[in-house]
Design a protein that fits this description.
The protein is of the alpha+beta class. It has two domains: 2-146, no CATH class; 156-284, no CATH class. Helix content is 36%, strand content 15%. The chain has nine helices and 13 strands. Strands 1-3-6-7 form a four-stranded antiparallel β-sheet. Helix 2 packs across helix 3 and helix 4 runs antiparallel to helix 7. The protein is elongated. The two termini are 43 Å apart.
Length: 306
């Protein structure tokens, strides 16, 4: 099933590019653009190899968007920063829309099909987290206006600070200290271990009490702005909380949550660094690897025995 879907989407991407290339000759001021896609299943949010491709162009005089039934203007979105007058999107199926309202339709409906003829890749949606900010932010702002989830008057910055301080200490955001891995484990009460049968690797887990506290404070921050704050790098619904009092979070996931909050709110990234002089591993927001040191930011950090 998955192979069939991949084959069909690859064929659609190839056919789309051929169609767009032929149409491009009709519009000398137009350009082919693309946006990243991912699987739209709640159980699988993996990225797609093929992006969605379309033409961004200047709308003809009197051109009506089929979605709004109004002339295409798109003052709310500048898709092409070098050519802000290009406010219309023409799909491979030759249907043309307001750039903003087509992208909003895709984000709101969790697909990337043509609103008129339904042509488009299967089980795909925009990978909004990897869309350029000048496109993503206007869409997120409009989505927030329609969001039904109240934040109960909670200040987003206060909720973020409370979550970060719970994990890394009260003065972390002021001092941004490096934290030794062992001390970080002690702070989060990593007292549970899961032994991987295949690799024999120890995977640290937080206690249920620490997991519940961290999960509740993370969800409190997410609810302040669900569209912007919800992480899109996995298929886990982190807004529902633990399923029982004995639920425990793996340390790797908790570190990703901290990295996510720091990145969204403060533009920081929480990663590991090895100090060769002291032979100690730290968590830090100041990773500036030397040219002689290989450094890669892992999606999931494997536990190492120190």
């Amino acid at each position: 099933m998955r192979t069939c879907q991949h084959t069909q989407n690859a064929a659609f991407a190839s056919d789309s590019l051929r169609s767009l290339g032929k149409q491009l000759s009709e519009f000398p001021t137009a350009k082919i653009h693309h946006l990243p896609l991912m699987n739209n299943s709640q159980d699988d949010r993996s990225p797609f190899h093929q992006p969605i491709q379309f033409i961004v162009k200047c709308p003809e005089a009197g051109c009506i968007c089929p979605i709004t039934q109004e002339p295409i203007t798109d003052e709310a979105l500048t898709f092409d920063l070098d050519h802000p007058e290009r406010t219309a999107i023409r799909l491979a199926c030759q249907h043309e829309f307001s750039a903003f309202w087509l992208l909003f339709n895709w984000v709101h409906n969790n697909h990337v099909k043509c609103p008129l003829c339904r042509a488009g890749p299967l089980q795909a949606c925009l990978d909004i987290a990897h869309v350029l900010p000048h496109i993503r932010v206007p869409l997120q702002r409009h989505m927030r206006k329609l969001a039904e989830t109240p934040n109960d008057g909670v200040n987003e910055l206060d909720a973020a600070r409370q979550f970060v301080e719970t994990m890394a200490g009260e003065s972390f955001l002021e001092l941004l200290p490096d934290i030794q891995v062992d001390k970080f484990h002690e702070r989060l009460e990593c007292k549970l271990w899961f032994i991987s049968g295949k690799l024999g690797v120890k995977i640290p887990y937080l206690t249920p009490q620490s997991s519940e506290l961290i999960c509740s404070r993370f969800m409190r921050w997410v609810r302040c702005d669900p569209v912007k704050n919800t992480p899109y790098w996995n298929g886990i619904d982190l807004t529902k909380g633990p399923t029982c009092k004995l639920s425990a979070l793996p340390l790797d996931l908790v570190i990703l949550l901290l990295d996510h909050v720091l990145n969204v709110m403060f533009g920081l990234s929480f990663t590991k660094r090895y100090d060769y002089d002291t032979q100690t591993i730290y968590y830090t927001v100041f990773n500036t690897p030397k040219s002689c040191e290989l450094f890669r930011r892992h999606v999931f950090v494997k536990y190492m025995s120190y």
